[in-house]
Structures are given as structure tokens and as C-alpha cells.
Amino acid sequence: DAGVTQSPTHLIKTRGQQVTLRCSPISGHKSVSWYQQVLGQGPQFIFQYYEKEERGRGNFPDRFSARQFPNYSSELNVNALLLGDSALYLCASSSSGGENYNEQFFGPGTRLTVL
Amino acid sequence: AQRVTQPEKLLSVFKGAPVELKCNYSYSGSPELFWYVQYSRQRLQLLLRHISRESIKGFTADLNKGETSFHLKKPFAQEEDSAMYYCALSGGSGYSTLTFGKGTMLLVSP
Asked: Which residue from B78, B76, B73 is spatially nearest to B110, judged by alpha carbons?
């Protein structure tokens, strides 16, 4: 297993555009979480999905949305991009989304630059 | 609101010296605390979690609820320990989301 994979690796957009980031979890994992990591900061939680349902949402505007597909892969969408959206977007998968913590395995991230 | 504070952006030590990376947290319930590590050009990975009470790569961390701290320690630093270290907390919603600190870069010089 290649672990969590994310595409694309890098992306350059201009203000006002829309972007879609993709994530494939580790085989057998049903939960996917998205994090934003701005330069010099730790990752900040955006969304968690489990069995195609949203289980958690961080303090991000409605411009951010996500979904999970039947094969447990996930997409993160950001509309009306702002310069401040420039960041590394991390995807993490875990085996379940239940109340007990399951180790999250992180992907390599997608580097988004907004000009 | 839950918060994780790592007061040092950079910690530079010589090989063989003891290391302590500080982490303090704010959380009203019973949190789970973790240390994640990111080596150069590698992805973020779990180093250890407090409930395991394990020693990983010579690192240990003890949860001190009275001081709300979870400092990471190693008695003798190695050059290969050079990396970015993040303290993280899980709690709140009850699901496995993580609140991270800003991270501490550990540089171990020969």
C-alpha cells in the first residue's frame, strides 16, 4: 500500500478561482480528514468524513466544502480563492471515525499557491 | 476552546545532549495527547501518544494534568532526530480530529 495519496502535488491559482483537491485513503480506512497548514503553523483541522458523512468541521468559511465517495476517497473544494488560502493541504485517513481515537495517517499534501 | 502551545520555534542542541520539547495544552475534558514528527521531505507521522506510555526512538512524554503539559524528552540526542515536532490534542467532538501546536524545529549538531 502506498499510503495516503493526494493529487495534485502542487497547484497555482489566482484569486477568485475555485480549486479541487483529491485524496485516496489507505486501503481499508473509512475515515478521511482534511487539514490546512499555513507556513510556520501547525496543521489546522478543516473537515472529517466517515462513511460518506461529515463528522466534524473546523472553523473555516463556507467557501470550503468536501465530500467522500463510496470508495472512501475524498475531495476538498475551495471557492472564491483568497491569497490567505495559500497553504499545504493535508489529508489523513484512519480506520474509523468513532469516539475512540484511531491513529491518523497523513498524505504528502497538496501545496496550493494563490496569486 | 482547546489549544496547544509549543513555546519554542527552534531548539538547537549538540549530539549526545538531553532534549526537552515543551508542550502545554488547554482543554476542559480529558484529552488524548500526541507527538507527531516530520523529517525532511517526509510526511507527518505519529511519534507517540500518551496512553501508550511507550518509548519510541528513545523519546518519552509524560502527561502532567496538573501542569497541563506533555513535554517530549530524550536523554541523548542523535543527529537523525533533527526534524519538526508537533504536539497535538484529540478531544472535543469525541472523534479523531487533532488540534496541533505550531511546532518546534529540533536541530541536532555533530
From this structure: B78
